[in-house]
Amino acid sequence: MSSNEKRGEAVDLSHHLSKVGKARQTSPLKGLHKYMGKPGLISLAGGLPNAAYFPFSSVSGDILAPDSFPLETDSKESSLSWFWRLFSRTDKERTSTFTVGKYSKHPGDLDLENGLQYGLATGQPKLNEIIREFVGKVFQPGYSNWTTLVHTGNTDAWFKTIQTILNPGDGLIVSEWTYPSAMAGAQPFGIIPVPVGMDSEGMSSISLRQTLSEWDESARGIPRPHVLYTVPIGQNPTGTTMGIQRKKEIYDICVEYDIIIVEDDPYYFLQQGKYIPKSDRVVDSATDDEAFIASLAPSYLKIDYQGRVIRLDTFSKTVCPGSRLGWFTCNPMFAERLERTAETSSQAPSGFTQIYVASLLLKWQYEGYLRWLKALRLQYKQRRDYFLDCFADEFHLQKKFSTEGYTAGTHLYHASLKPRRSFVPLSEKDNAYSKPLFSFVPPSSGMFLWIELHLEEHPAFSSLGYKALEMKLWTEIAEAGVLFAPGAMFFATPVEDDTLGHGHFRISFSNSTPEDLKKAVSTFSTVLRKFMKN
């Protein structure tokens, strides 16, 4: 479809609202806001502080040029040289300045008089205008009356969503490995996670259909779930990327079984593609805006013709996490209920944050922000590649195609310890490697490497089991000065001593220096070698 005029409107999904979501009333005082924009209005109703007493005459900042980072890599450079250049830049940053005064000079301009005043839960109008343009061009929702409203980051957005569409005792469909903070947010409300199997694209549509078609309410003790939570891009913790065909399969199942999809997508613009070993790597070339958007796995929004997707976006990964700013995209019925929730909780994100981010996006414009996002994707791709190159240098990696479990359908790297003595003849070297001690699928999106441990050869494996060994190894790595995230916390339901499987670690490559990344992998190798002997 080429335009919103040809798209239908969202269907009525109000039966998915929770008891709390249905019961929310317009805040008595917030309901007066609809009159605030009336020309010539003398407002004596609200307790609004006088802007003349705000102790800020203006706010300003220096904004990086949107082309501050390159769009191409040089194939002749080593995987390390670009990284050193990034961390030892001597060239002065190119910036432009913005200033927002207390009072606007032109109607519709940003100003502190309104920006720092009690504001609408939907967000400052100028910021919402920018966000709406961006969503329409990039995510291209599949129905006509979609809308957006701001929130204070995806954690806050998920909290509001839980209250709006889930009742205590409801089941929540999640991937078998999932984001633990999302589960921690749902747990106090009595929400019960329902894990669904995964493969190399994330949640399996086959497993989802099986779970729903075989649902036995009497055996399960709860009704069939009506909400699905997913991180489809840079799946946390596995780093997988869900393509459009899988999303269509899952969406069709959700239509069939009347399920709401909550698409939590903070890593959307960090889609890095397949990992290519450095010996086979080629130049990353620049693309135009249209090609860039087309190269990204589409959002569920693009195929959502009924308005059953509540999408959570954030500026945390593309601007900065301290901004605590993001937005919902959803149908107007859900948006109105989420707005009611915000009115009596967070109200609106910080006025300072909204002014700064809106000023940034006004200065860059749509084209400049896309230019920034293109370069950002490349920066994290190079970080990912360098980190995996460190593993290739430190361990013997053997590539195999996986047909089982959450890695099914893609190539898996099995990692073994390299022999310590360099004088071992090449013909004998293969026999000198240890058995694989861990394996991983290179992440195609996000900020994390997810490794699966294979500790069966450990002397205490039969007596301790993999769960205890995972924590024992994790402790020894931490005491050696490197902190990984233990894998058990990412399982959708608590890992017990008799839970079948393997230990795991989630390892971030997003923030450390190249020195520290390389040192961390070396330390892991040293600790693992010693650990397997004890």
From TrEMBL:
InterPro entries: Aminotransferase_I/II_large, Class-I_PLP-dep_aminotransf, PyrdxlP-dep_Trfase, PyrdxlP-dep_Trfase_major. Residues 115-392 form the Aminotransferase class I/classII large domain. It comes from the Eukaryota. CDD domains: AAT_like. Belongs to the class-I pyridoxal-phosphate-dependent aminotransferase family. Pfam families: Aminotran_1_2. Gene3D superfamilies: Type I PLP-dependent aspartate aminotransferase-like (Major domain). Coiled coil: none annotated. Keywords: Aminotransferase, Pyridoxal phosphate, Transferase. GO terms for molecular function: pyridoxal phosphate binding; transaminase activity. This is Pyridoxal phosphate-dependent transferase. The lineage of its organism: Eukaryota, Fungi, Dikarya, Basidiomycota, Agaricomycotina. Transmembrane segments: none annotated. Its cofactor is pyridoxal 5'-phosphate. One of its GO terms (biological process) is alpha-amino acid metabolic process.
